[in-house]
Amino acid sequence: MPNFKRVTPSKESKQQLSKPVTVVRRSLDINSIVEKHSHSWGQFVYAHKGVLIVATAEDRYIVPPEQGVWLLPEIEHEVTAISKVELTSFYFDNSLLNKLPLNCCVLKVNNFLKALIIEANDIVNDYQWYSVDGRLLRLILDRLSLAANVILQLPYPKDPRLLRMLTLIQNDPSTGYNLEQWGKIVGASARSLSRLFKNETGLSYRAWRQRLNVQIAISQLSNGKSITSISLYLGYESPSAFIHMFKKNTGMTPSYYHDKE
């Protein structure tokens, strides 16, 4: 297991917003964890380079290039860099949130929005809201309000039996037990586990497991692992079976993410 280095949140995250939108740029080394914290405003975090994991009490979001995470105010979260990361965060005053999603989620960053974000990196935070810089930030707000939701979050269960399953799966992702086999390990019937998964995550066990596999795969792809080695690591009988699952869940082949690094 890698040794993770804990780092503090950026100084701006502890201050009050002086502008409707504040732009924060940051670099994180591989295996860095930004300690758990929250803000009284909305935040959109986008990684120009590398892959982030953003974890809240309810969900875990993975953020490869081309996506970003939208976080609501007062949501406690922890950020992990699973590769070297260059990121930009936008802090939005609560008066602007009526245009943005009502729930935390992953948003797609198309080429136009990416170009706007890169341009915003040069903005100094003493700008005037109705200046050219302010107009750029208002355009970013408008484009985020139109951005497609990408289903890359992994809902966390809370039941101790499901959490034990999660721990065992994460320790050995190739484990291919069905719910009947898991029931013998954690002390519950397959029917009970199926019901628990649906009630606590909103997903069937199969759908939840595939989403976990996608998150693990994107993490491995960001570190240069081959598609063949990842498919074996996750217990698939062949790379083609893994690719089919990945494309079904993300709309992209694994090579799309691999080629981004």
Report mean pLDDT, rounded to a whole number: 89
Give me the CATH superfamily of the largest domain.
Regulatory protein AraC
β-strand amount: 15-25%
Number of strands: 12
**Helix-strand topology string:** EEEEEEEEEEHHEEHHHHHHH
CATH topology-level fold name of the largest domain: Jelly Rolls
The tally of structural domains comes to 2
Report how far apart the termini are: 22 Å
The CATH architecture assignment of the largest domain turns out to be Sandwich
Q: Could you name the ranges where pLDDT drops below 50 across 5 or more consecutive residues? A: none
CATH class of the largest domain: Mainly Beta
Biggest beta sheet summary = 6 strands, mixed
What spatial order of strands do you see in the largest sheet? 1-3-8-5-6-12
Radius of gyration, in Å, reads 19 Å
Q: What is the number of helical segments per DSSP (H or I, 4+ residues)?
A: 9
Which range best describes the helical content: under 10%, 10-25%, 25-40%, 40-55%, 55-70% or over 70%?
A: 25-40%
Q: What best-fitting shape do the alpha-carbon axes yield?
A: globular
Short description:
By secondary structure, this protein is of the alpha+beta class. 38% of the residues lie in helices and 24% in strands.
Describe the structure.
- With 261 residues, this protein is α+β, with helices and mostly antiparallel strands.
- It has 2 domains: 5-153, Jelly Rolls (Sandwich), CATH 2.60.120; 157-258, Arc Repressor Mutant, subunit A.
- 38% of the residues lie in helices and 24% in strands.
- The protein has 9 helices and 12 strands.
- It has helices at 111-120, 132-146, 160-171, 179-186, 190-201, 205-222, 227-233, 239-250, 254-258, and strands at 5-7, 21-28, 32-37, 42-49, 52-56, 59-63, 67-71, 77-81, 85-92, 105-108, 149-150, 153-155.
- The strands form 2 sheets. It has a 6-stranded mixed β-sheet with strand order 1-3-8-5-6-12, with helices on one face. Strands 2-9-4-7-10-11 form a 6-stranded antiparallel β-sheet, covered by helices on one side.
- β5 (52-56) and β6 (59-63) form a beta hairpin.
- α1 packs antiparallel against α2 (132-146).
- It starts with a strand and ends with a helix.
- 31% of the residues are buried.
